[in-house]
Design goal:
Length: 73
């Protein structure tokens, strides 16, 4: 049986279906750890909860008209 290393790295079911000797032949995944701890996730950009952004609504009819027409110019 030929072992598909990339599939074994990505597909848990495929990897677990391999015999123990076949699993022992697999090299470590070059991507490294695939699960991060909560501490590691807190340092990831975007790992923090989003804060809502409040936008101001323009109610001036002239500005609203200009904004609606800007794509036509």
């Amino acid at each position: 049986m030929t072992i598909d290393m990339i599939r074994a790295w990505k597909d848990d079911a495929y990897r677990e279906a391999l015999s123990e000797p076949e699993q022992a032949l697999l090299p470590e995944n070059p991507a490294g750890a695939i699960e991060l701890t909560e501490h590691e996730l807190s340092g990831v950009d975007g790992g923090q909860p989003m804060t809502p952004v409040i936008t101001r609504v323009v109610c001036d009819p002239l500005i609203s008209w200009l904004m609606a027409c800007r794509d036509r110019w």
